[in-house]
Amino acid sequence: MHNIRQYQLPLQRYMAMMDLQEGNERLFYKLLIDNVEELLPVVYTPTVGEACQKYGSIFSRPQGLYISLKEKGKILEVLKNWPERSIQVIVVTDGERILGLGDLGCQGMGIPVGKLSLYTALGGVRPSACLPITLDVGTNNEQLLNDEFYIGLRQRRAIGQEYADFLHEFMAAVKQNYGEKVLIQFEDFANHNAFDLLARYGTTHLVFNDDIQGTASVVLAGLVAALKLVGGTLAEHTYLFLGAGEAGTGIAELIALEMSRQTKIPIEECRKKIWLVDSKGLIVSTRKESLQHFKQPWAHEHEHVGNLLDAVNAIKPTVLIGTSGKGQTFTQEVVEAISSFNEMPIILALSNPTSQAECTAEQAYTWSKGRAVFATGSPFDPVEYNGKMYVPGQANNAYIFPGFGLGVVMSGAIRVHDDMLLAASEALAQQVTQENFDKGLIYPPFSNIRKISAHIAANVAAKAYELGLASRRPRPKDLVKYAESCMYSPIYRNYR
Ligand SMILES: O=C([O-])CC(=O)C(=O)O
Ligand SMILES: [Mg+2]
After folding, report:
1. ∠ at Cα 454 (391, 33), nearest 5°?
2. Domain 400-486 class?
3. Which pTM does this prediction carry?
4. How remote is the CA of residue 114 from the centroid of ligand 1, in Å?
5. Which residues are noted in the entry as (S)-malate-binding (predicted)?
6. 254 and 425 in contact (C-beta within 8 Å)?
7. Coil, helix or strand for 71?
8. Which CATH superfamily is domain 213-397 in?
């Protein structure tokens, strides 16, 4: 840590950590686990975003498996080149929507690598069982195509049938090579592919989309916790999203599902408490024809509303959630408007990395006069306002996917079911202590994350058994203890 702290720039710290991961894996994980709050922003958001943007020029050695269009027809052989045989979790991207930074092509590899480091550090999945994969199907990022250090194919993205066939070969090859109990986490695909891939492979493979399902689970947990501070039930609140992509519609759907479970009201009715704004304004029924399919369930009856501020004033939400990938969109007017009709507005600025956050913590607390219950996707420092300290929570899927994945792997689950996402969410919300609430926090600190992950894993596994989706026999009696016993620990022996 002394050496890492010598570096002033976050990117230098990132590079030092990546060197350490390569050279001394055990020490890398020991550091990461023991200093998680300090190092998470280095190996994960926001620094991993900058690393991906500059990946070509900081590249020293490949950290995961690249599979390019050129390998079409031979993907199985390429997979067999990976030295480890027993893989439990794959995180795969095609780099088309890296965080809120857009198309970074092959340079998106930083994301699967970072996510899998957290699978190990936060969730205890063995490092050797983790496989980061980037599918190189080209990039539409002109700057990268002209960058002498770009590490991927210099061609525009494959689309349509060519893309579908390539992905199909990949999915089949993974199953053939690793069996059906390998968890495939889709990460940072563009909206136009993410929903389709999840729908297409959700019934034949063990797949999980972190941006749709992981984010949904973490946000639902935060909301359930926030209600303890703000009051009311899920169904008594009104939700407005800016951004109707993977995160926005994924969160919205999981809230509606949980609302429906709690109230026994049909989910179609529950959806009406939830409104989404996209780049063309409020999503309303008159726009239905021209909407992408994943937005259509949210097209409720309402007159046309052109922008977020007008939507806030028209819908009067109690909860405002930013998932658009665009920074500085929760303006002073927007935050003041929602604060004018809520004693304690719940405001979540979820876009990553920090540069894309809808507003900063300081803005949220200042503009709401310290009344907002606030969390962000990327970390923000505590803020002092009017002599009081405010600590924003980090509503990031990193709370969920490591424990979720552990639960799936340890139970030998063969499919992911929505109820397992609800189980993960419930377990996370239960880990928020009175001490956290007293500080206004709706998430527990990351310093306890391994214990939290064990509880998430246990709840997810329990649900998998209940649903008949778990193949591991016999079912361990104490699933929390079992989860803990499964977790990789970078232990140093004391020989003295
Ligand atoms: O990686 C993160 O910090 C959260 C996430 O999945 C995203 O923003 O796409
Ligand atoms: Mg993501």
Report:
1. 60
2. alpha beta
3. 0.97
4. 10
5. 97, 352, 396
6. yes
7. helix
8. NAD(P)-binding Rossmann-like Domain (3.40.50.720)
